[in-house]
Design a protein that fits this description.
This protein is an alpha/beta fold. It has helices at about 5, 35-50, 75-85, 90-110, 130-135, 160-170, 170-180, 185-195, 205-220, 225-255, 260-270; strands at about 10-15, 20-25, 55-60, 115-120, 125, 140, 145-150, 185, 200. The protein has 11 helices and 9 strands. It is globular, with a radius of gyration of 18 Å.
């Protein structure tokens, strides 16, 4: 067993299959919701894989019934609440900025991983899940996959990467429409717009098999050439991404606190539609 497999994590499981590492989202939130454990661990997970030179490609998938339902809203609200109450002086805003930047690093760690990452999406891939797959190099989906840039529906500007990375994948117009409406869209639309490169039957097992086939094909190529392809393509967009991530972090640091955000969390807790003003 390699050092990659020896480490245990609260939010993911890592398994080596030859030269391919399979990283499986496991929660602990329901629906693999992305809570504090995920944001803290993902940079370390990717750093561990980066150090293991026997890993030439990575598959990212979700356990159970879906890929991920996105942000763990209730647990995240517990983190945010102290920073969004009272007068919001400079100290609170500094803490909020640091939190947003920590979330961003978790997703950027996937984008900047040494090895290519293939995302295998089944069922729900919502909110932060779309940020995560946008940071991946290749995306494939099951026929039952459902996607959404959902943050606007909870009074948040998406701030961990989808607004920066999706335009390069599906175009600015499509990204604007998804991000401004927050609507759900299916695997056929994801394929038609280029978000995913293929759609597969068989649910989680079918799409995992397809992702593994792609990852194994990648891993069979020259590792230095593969790393070079990813590095060159990443460098072409890196400066703008860094600037835009900083800009959205500062925007949310200034404007995240609102009565609409409070209404969004209350509506979620009460299982009703929010009424924004």
């Amino acid at each position: 067993m390699s050092a990659t497999e020896e480490k245990t994590w609260a939010s993911v499981a890592v398994e080596k299959r030859g030269a391919v590492a399979v990283v499986t989202l496991t929660g602990p939130g329901k629906g693999n919701a992305m809570g504090p454990e995920f944001w803290a661990e993902m940079p370390e997970v990717m750093a561990t894989l980066n150090r293991d030179r026997t890993v030439r490609a990575c598959v990212l998938r979700g356990s159970g019934k879906c890929f991920t339902v996105g942000l763990d809203l209730m647990r995240t609200m517990g983190e945010l609440a102290p920073m969004l109450t009272g007068a919001q002086l400079a100290g609170q805003r500094r803490e909020l900025l640091a939190l947003i930047e920590r979330y961003q690093r978790a997703i950027t760690a996937v984008a900047e991983a040494r090895m290519p990452v293939v995302a295998a999406v089944h069922s729900y891939c919502l909110g932060g899940g779309l940020d995560l797959i946008a940071a991946s190099d290749v995306r494939v989906a099951s026929s039952d996959a459902v996607f959404s840039v959902r943050e606007v529906r909870i009074a948040i500007v998406a701030d961990v990467g989808s607004l920066q990375r999706l335009p390069g994948i599906v175009g600015e117009g499509r990204t604007r429409e998804w991000a401004l409406t927050g609507r759900d869209f299916d695997a056929n639309e994801a394929l038609r717009t280029g978000l995913v490169t293929s759609v597969h039957e068989g649910g989680a097992d079918g799409v995992l098999a397809a992702a593994l086939a792609i990852a194994e094909r990648i891993a069979a190529n020259s590792p230095i050439a593969v790393e070079g392809v990813k590095a060159v393509m990443n460098d072409a967009r890196a400066s703008r991404e860094r600037e835009d991530l900083r800009r959205v972090a500062l925007w949310n640091t200034a404007f995240l606190s609102s009565t609409d955000l409070q209404e969004a969390f209350m509506a979620f807790a009460e299982r009703r539609e929010p009424v924004f003003k």
